[in-house]
Design goal:
Number of strands: 15
Strand content: 25-35%
CATH class of the largest domain: Alpha Beta
Bound molecules: beta-D-glucopyranose
Distance between the termini: 11 Å
Amino acid sequence: MEIMGIDIGGAGIKGALVDIEKGALATDRYRVPTPQPSKPKPVAKAVAEVVEHFDWNGPIGCTFPAIIKKGVAYSAANVDDEWIGTDAARIIQRYTGDPVLIINDADAAGIAEMHFGAGRGHSGVVIMLTLGTGIGSAVFVNGELLPNTELGHLELRGKDGEDRASDRIRTEKDWSWKKWAKRLNEYIQHVEFLFSPDLFIIGGGVSKKYQKYFPHLDLKTEIVPAQLRNEAGIVGAAMAAQSLI
Ligand code: BGC
């Protein structure tokens, strides 16, 4: 069965039809830039443009980089503050005309990785961390998601973890892989101490370059790169939207 999956990010809105039995994209991805400022109405319109590109009528799963409960956004770290307290699902639905399910971006990526990627078959505590503009987190206990964990905002040395160790910081500061890995290691060690996980999965664009920084990490826990790469959010959002059927 195919379902429309959409990944709303700070810079781009990407969508594709997803074969949810295979956990793979059934079409090419279509991307439009995220309107700036990224306020609710223009973003919802841009999502509708992606949906129209596919001529899609049916359920839509959408990731969003914020705390999401029953479609309502309770934070807005890398999108406009106007989203906070708004029913994001309803706003987007108004423009698409189709039922919309909204889910935190890292949670969506985690769901896809647990079913079809690096987390497949892993029980116990699995933590996926997505390294990008921010740090997203998805925590699973025996395959069950504990949603909205927001571990990117864990405070370390008086700062948000994501303001010390995200991939954005690495590129902004033009750090070597080794230097960044030191910061990242300190952050992941903190998460490791708090949760004693059985497996870490690292996602986000930088996960494909894992060979450059994994060797500099010093952890007790097994750590692996994500397998679905930048498709995980779209796939996971579409999987979550099955609940609308
Ligand atoms: C947001 C999270 C999001 C993560 C990755 C953080 O700044 O607070 O909700 O999952 O960035 O986009």
